[in-house]
Specification:
Chain A is mainly alpha-helical. Chain A contains eight helices and no strands. The longest helix of chain A has about 35 residues. Classes of the chains: A mainly alpha, B alpha/beta. Chains A and B meet through helix 1, helix 2, helix 5 and helix 8 of A and helix 3, helix 6, helix 7, helix 8 and helix 9 of B.
Chain lengths: ~230, ~375
C-alpha cells in the first residue's frame, strides 16, 4: 500500500496534466497553474527541512570538532544574522517585526538585510561567477589540443568562432571584396553558430524531449519506480 | 408603391448589415477557455478617419477599449465573460472628432473542449506512446532487444570500486533545479542505483542538494537503496544534506566539499547552468573520475571538456532504465529510438517538400 497509493496519485496527476494540455475548457485550463501553486506551498514547507538540515549538519561538526569546524561557525553566524535582520526589520518591500528600520535606513542607506545582501552577498556571488572565466580557459586549453581528427575540427571551428567575434577577426578579412563576403571571418563564425552548432543543439533537444516523454510515461505507468525508492 | 419602398428599405438594411459584417468582424476566439473574443476590421475603415472601440454586455452601456490608431485586429481577453453575448461598436470619427459612421457586431465567447491547434502534438504523443507501449509489451513477452552501450553508465561500477579501493567517498550532485524538473528526477533515479552500489561496496556517498524537496526525495531514495542492498545500518542521513538554494553559494559549497573530502568519483547528473564548469573543473583538479549528464545543450560542452564520461541529453533519461536491466524499461528505450527514427524521416521529408515548395508538413506542425 505504501507504494500503490503514490503510484495511483502519480498516474492520475500525470494523466490529468497530459489531458489538460489539449483541453482549454474549464476546469482543465487551470489545472497546471493550480498544481504549480500546490508545488510552491509544499516547497515552502520543505524549506524548513532544508534549514534544519543545514543547522544540524553544522552544529554536529562544531560539537565533534570535525575538520574545518570553524567554517561551520561562520556559516551559522551568517545564517542567523540574515535571519534575525530579515525578521526584525524586514526586506526591501516588506516590514519586519519591529518595523521598517527607518533610523537604520537613514544611517546605512538601506535595511540591514538588504545592506548585507547588496554589499557582501552580491560580491561573493560575483566572485564565484567570475571564476568561470578561468575555468573556461583551462577547459578550453584541454579541449583544443589537436590529437584526433574530431578535436582538430573542433580547434579549427573554435578559432573561426573566436576570431569572428573579435574586432581583430573583423579587420583581418576586411580587405575582402563584397562578392567574397562568405569568407569574411564574422560571416564564417555566424555560419558555424547558426547552422552546424544550432543543428547539433536541436538534435540534443529533440533527443532530450523524447527522453522526457519516455521517462514520463515510465513513471506515469508505474514501470519506473526507483523515484519511489523501490524496484519494480 | 409603399410595398416597393418597404422592400427596398429592407434590402438596403440587409445590405448594410452584410457590408458592416464584412468590414467589422467579431468572432469567438478559437481554442480557448471562453475568455476571449476576436475583433477584426477592414483596413479601409482607417483611411477615412480614426476609430474608437466600445464594448457592452447589455447593448446599452458601452465602455471604451483603448486602441492604437493603426490596429486592424484586437483580442478582447476578459476572464469575466460568462458565456453571454458581448456587443461591440466601432465608431469611425473624422479629424474633427465627429462621428462619421459606426459598425456594430456581437459574439458569444465559448470554451472549447479540444484545442485543435495542438492536434499535431496529440498525434505525435499517441504515435510515440504507442511505440513505447508496443516495445514494452514485446519485451514483456520475452523478445530480445538490442540497446547500445552507454559507457558513462557502464563505468559506474569502476568509479565506485575505485573510490572504495582508495578509501574515499563518492559525490553525487543532482543539479540546482527542484523536483518539478525532469532532469532532477532522472538524476535522482540514477542516485538510487548508485546508492545500491555504494552500499554493496561499503563506500561513503555524499549528496549535497540545493533544494529542500530534493533533500527529502534523495534521502528517501538512498535509504531504500541501502535497505534493498541489505545494509540499512550503513545508511547515513547526514551525508545527504542541504547547502543553499542560491546557485553560486551551492557551487562554493560543492567545490569546498570536493577540495576537502577529495571524492574519488563525482556524479553530476541533473539540471545545471553556469555552475556546471566550476564544479566539473574543480572535480577534474581533484583527480576524481567524473560522470556528468544533463539535457542543457549549452552546458554539455563544459562537461565533455572536463569529465571522463558525459551522458548527453536523452542518455540521462535513459540511464535509470539502462541500469535496471529490466526488459520493460529497456523496451521503453526502444520506443524512444523509434520516435527518433520517425522524427528523422519527418525532417528529411519536410526538407524535400520545402525544396519543392510544398509547405503542408511545415504548416501542419506550426503550432500557434
Amino acid at each position: 500500500m505504501n507504494h500503490i497509493l503514490p503510484l495511483i496519485i502519480t498516474f492520475l496527476a500525470g494523466l490529468l496534466m497530459i489531458v489538460s494540455e489539449f483541453i482549454p475548457h474549464k476546469p482543465f485550463e487551470r489545472i497546471v497553474s493550480e498544481l504549480e501553486i500546490w508545488f510552491m506551498i509544499i516547497s515552502g514547507f520543505a524549506i524548513i527541512l532544508g534549514q534544519l538540515s543545514l543547522i544540524k549538519m553544522n552544529v554536529l561538526k562544531i560539537q565533534y570538532k570535525s575538520e574545518n569546524w570553524k567554517y561551520c561557525v561562520v556559516t551559522l553566524i551568517s545564517f542567523f544574522i540574515m535571519l534575525i535582520a530579515g525578521l526584525l526589520w524586514g526586506t526591501q518591500n516588506q516590514g519586519g517585526i519591529i518595523g521598517s528600520g527607518e533610523s537604520l535606513i537613514q544611517s546605512i542607506g538601506s535595511k540591514p538585510f538588504d545592506y548585507i545582501f547588496d554589499n557582501i552577498y552580491q560580491h561573493l556571488m560575483a566572485s564565484m561567477f567570475s571564476l568561470l572565466a578561468f575555468f573556461i580557459a583551462s577547459a578550453a586549453y584541454r579541449a583544443f589540443i589537436a590529437r584526433t581528427l574530431e578535436s582538430s575540427l573542433l580547434l579549427i571551428s573554435a578559432i573561426f568562432v573566436m576570431l569572428g567575434n573579435t574586432s581583430i577577426g573583423t579587420s583581418l578579412t576586411s580587405f575582402l571584396p563584397e562578392n567574397l563576403n562568405f569568407l569574411h571571418l564574422p560571416t564564417i563564425s555566424a555560419f558555424i553558430m547558426d547552422y552546424p552548432n544550432l543543428a547539433g543543439q536541436r538534435a540534443i533537444m529533440i533527443g532530450a524531449g523524447l527522453g522526457i516523454i519516455g521517462s514520463s510515461l515510465r513513471i506515469i505507468l508505474g514501470i519506473e519506480r526507483s523515484w519511489l525508492g523501490g524496484k519494480k | 408603391m409603399k410595398k416597393r419602398l418597404f422592400c427596398i428599405t429592407i434590402a438596403l438594411g440587409i445590405l448594410s448589415m452584410l457590408m458592416s459584417a464584412h468590414l467589422f468582424k467579431v468572432t469567438d476566439y478559437p481554442n480557448d477557455d471562453g475568455s476571449a473574443i476576436k475583433l477584426q476590421w477592414d483596413k479601409s475603415i482607417l483611411e477615412s478617419g480614426h476609430i474608437e472601440l466600445y464594448k457592452s454586455t447589455d447593448n446599452k452601456h458601452f465602455i471604451q477599449i483603448p486602441l492604437s490608431s493603426d490596429m486592424t485586429e484586437y483580442v478582447d481577453k476578459d476572464s469575466t465573460f460568462s458565456g453571454n453575448m458581448v456587443f461591440y461598436r466601432l465608431d469611425l470619427k473624422n479629424h474633427a472628432g465627429e462621428l462619421v459612421n459606426f459598425y456594430k457586431s456581437s459574439a458569444i465567447p465559448k470554451a472549447q473542449w479540444f484545442n485543435t491547434d495542438k492536434l499535431p502534438l496529440l498525434i505525435i504523443l499517441i504515435l510515440f506512446s504507442s511505440a513505447i507501449a508496443y516495445y514494452v509489451l514485446s519485451a514483456k513477452q520475452g523478445k530480445e532487444l538490442y540497446i547500445r552501450k552507454i559507457n558513462g553508465l557502464d563505468a559506474m561500477d569502476e568509479a565506485v570500486g575505485r573510490a572504495t579501493e582508495m578509501g574515499k567517498p563518492v559525490l553525487f550532485v543532482p543539479g540546482i533545479m527542484d523536483l518539478d524538473d525532469m532532469q532532477t528526477i532522472a538524476g535522482l533515479t540514477i542516485l538510487g542505483k548508485l546508492a545500491e552500489k555504494t552500499a554493496d561496496y561499503h563506500c561513503k556517498l555524499i549528496v549535497p542538494v540545493s533544494k529542500s524537496m530534493v533533500l527529502s526525495a534523495a534521502r528517501e531514495i538512498v535509504k531504500t537503496a541501502y535497505m534493498q542492498a541489505g545494509h540499512p545500518d550503513e545508511y547515513q542521513p547526514d551525508n545527504i544534506f542541504y547547502l543553499t538554494d542560491d546557485q553560486f553559494g551551492y557551487v562554493a559549497g560543492v567545490d569546498g566539499i570536493i577540495m576537502r573530502e577529495k571524492p574519488a568519483a563525482n556524479f553530476l547528473l541533473g539540471c545545471f547552468y553556469a555552475e556546471s564548469l566550476i564544479i566539473a573543473e574543480t572535480g577534474f583538479a581533484s583527480g576524481a573520475i567524473q560522470t556528468a549528464g544533463t539535457a542543457q545543450p549549452s552546458q554539455l560542452p563544459f562537461f565533455v571538456a572536463s569529465c571522463d564520461y558525459t551522458l548527453i541529453g536523452e542518455e540521462l533519461f535513459a540511464a535509470s532504465a539502462y541500469l535496471s536491466k529490466d526488459p520493460q524499461q529497456l523496451g521503453s528505450l526502444k520506443g524512444q529510438d523509434f520516435g527518433k527514427l520517425v522524427i528523422i524521416l519527418m525532417i528529411i521529408t519536410g526538407v524535400i517538400l520545402e525544396i519543392f515548395g510544398i509547405h503542408f508538413l511545415k504548416d501542419f506542425f506550426n503550432i500557434s
